[in-house]
Amino acid sequence: MSAPVAFTFxxxxxGRARLGLLTTPHGLIETPQFMPVGTQATVKALSPGxxxxxxxxxxxxxxxxxxxxxxxxxxxxxGGLHRFMGWDxxxxxxxxxxxxxSLAHLGTVDDDGATFASHLDGSPQRLTPERAMEIQEAxxxxxxxxxxxxxxxxxxxxxxxxxxxxxxxxxxxxxAAHTRPDQALFGIVQGGVDADLRRESVASITAxxxxxxxxxxxxxxxxxxxxxxxxxxxxxxxxxxxxxxxLMGVGAPPDFFTAVERGIDLFxxxxxTRVARTGQLWTSSGRLNLRNARFLDDPEPPDADCRCxxxxxxSRAYLAHxxxxxxxxxxxxxxxxxxxxxxxxxxxIREALENGSFGTLREAVMAQYGGSGTRSISQG
Length: 380
Ligand SMILES: [Zn+2]
Known about the structure:
It is built from 15 helices and 16 strands. By secondary structure, the protein is of the alpha/beta class. It is globular. The chain has helices spanning 48-54, 63-68, 72-77, 81-85, 97-102, 129-139, 157-177, 195-206, 224-238, 253-260, 271-276, 309-313, 316-324, 328-355, 358-368, and strands at 6-11, 18-24, 27-31, 33-38, 59-61, 91-93, 107-109, 114-117, 124-127, 143-145, 184-189, 212-215, 244-247, 266-269, 280-283, 286-289.
């Protein structure tokens, strides 16, 4: 039987950056690539048509949220997640590990799994590696994620090590439980910001027959320098492993450059849509806060260089008004723009890797977004 996904890539000549193509049951994904987050089977305020118009190639949906509501069995009965939400492109589902982390105050983790209270009604819930596989197979995503235990990257190494070794045992249980032949399964490297633990985790996870390798446990309290250093040593440890590499939960413009140079192919983050709903737009001249009174009389489009519906048809003044009036259209227009900006940025990164202008693009974006303070590893 052929593998559910296939990944081909070539080195770009810029640091460890790769240009690749990930083939999934629901279509192709050009890498480096960003996945907008559709927590509840919707990228908030956007329709599948909006996502297509923005150039989105793959989205992420949440195992934990969808298993509670409307229930993965119901989604399976209705034909699976693609049909349920009207999105026929690739979908990656997370495993619930992040929700266990963020809802840690509601539960406990043991060697078998995690027990916690539903954030909806307080009912007792249990996630195990087997359960996480069952839910993701019912949802029918193209890519499922192994169930992992995420901890604050800055905890003492002894505590990070306990969660990491548990994650390794759970990884084997996920592989044993996963049966769906048309669904890929990615493993997750943990280990916080401790160099020895990260190397141990890369060795354990890459020894297993996963279809892709994710780097978890970053963007959870560490500094930008720690993130870059961790990605450096993960890249070193991964060496010439040919599988696609996914950095979980990272999505600020400067961070893309830091990670792409270190060999990362895929990203996801709630950031572009979350900040959009607060009135913050990402533009080719940097961040724009539409709550600022000076935009109430500004007839210019949010970003004159942007091709999105919002920028082609509307002014900063109109959006500033919509936000003040708390009109629903504010959320759609701002989200559509930020997702378009992010997709265009990833396309520009791919083009820059092809044509040798990556360093120029990186400097421009770092200048617009305040940089990350992370030293480049290449002169690309
Ligand atoms: Zn726009």
